[in-house]
From TrEMBL:
Source organism per UniProt: Candidatus Eisenbergiella merdavium
InterPro entries: DUF4405 (IPR025517)
Signal sequence bounds: none
One matching Pfam family: DUF4405
Residue ranges of domain Flavinylation-associated cytochrome in the record: 72-129
Residues passing through the membrane, by range: 7-26, 32-50, 71-96, 116-135, 147-169, 189-210
Keywords: Membrane, Transmembrane, Transmembrane helix
Protein name stated in the entry: DUF4405 domain-containing protein
Length: 223
């Protein structure tokens, strides 16, 4: 593996950890939340700079169902992150000092972009899950039974979607919530488990969304 590839993987892992921390607003507080958000956005920009070749390849070649899924998720994630940063600025003290008062609109926009951003970044991870599985298989000699993997995925999807609904993800994503209510006394470990399974759920859905069309295409070629 090249040094550049290692750096890209490291940045992706740090971004994933920062994403957890940013979503944990009740535990971090406003000041730390702001700096964590800025750090995440800067790494997001670095991530795109390191993947400029992907942008150069967008207008080239044939578009299959899998490639359309990749492009759609990546484009929506990019938009979500830009809106997230802009809405975060509108909620900051700097915007207030500049006499910019977006009020409820910026709060709802921030909740909407954060929720979409989390789900889309989870899906983005799922698009590259095959690469991570390949790296894990090289390091783990004993293979996990296929049925165990499927059962874990099914459990994760059911549990993760239920938790996303319980934590009002879908209300925020579709502009149906004015204010978010947090449990400031919630144990950190419970928060991490629920958000981890939410991430795994949408990563699994994205992974199989591209795996099934690939299998179907491979069968057609084999006929």
């Amino acid at each position: 593996m090249t040094t550049k590839a290692r750096v890209k993987i490291l940045i992706d892992v740090v971004m994933m950890l920062l994403l957890f921390a940013v979503m944990a607003y009740p535990m971090t507080g406003e000041a730390l939340h702001k700096w964590l958000g800025i750090s995440l956005f800067l790494l997001f920009l670095v991530h795109h700079i390191l993947n400029l070749k992907w942008y150069q390849s967008v207008p080239k070649g044939k578009y299959t169902a899998v490639r359309w899924i990749h492009c759609f998720i990546n484009a929506m994630l990019f938009i979500s992150m830009i809106v997230l940063m802009v809405s975060g600025f509108l909620l900051s003290s700097l915007a207030y000092d500049l006499n910019i008062h977006a009020g409820l609109f910026s709060r709802k926009l921030h909740m909407l972009s954060a929720s979409w951003g989390y789900i889309l970044m989870s899906a983005h991870i799922g698009l590259h899950w095959g690469m991570f599985l390949g790296l894990m298989r090289k390091r783990i000699k004993r293979r996990v039974p296929r049925i165990a993997t499927y059962l874990f995925c099914v459990f994760s999807v059911v549990y993760g979607i239920c938790e996303a609904a319980t934590r009002q993800f879908f209300l925020k994503m579709f502009w149906m919530l004015d204010y978010a209510f947090y449990d400031f006394g919630e144990p950190v470990i419970l928060f991490m488990i629920d958000y981890a399974f939410t991430m795994i759920a949408f990563a699994c859905l994205a992974y199989y969304a591209i795996k099934l069309p690939r299998k179907s295409l491979a069968k057609k070629k084999g006929q």
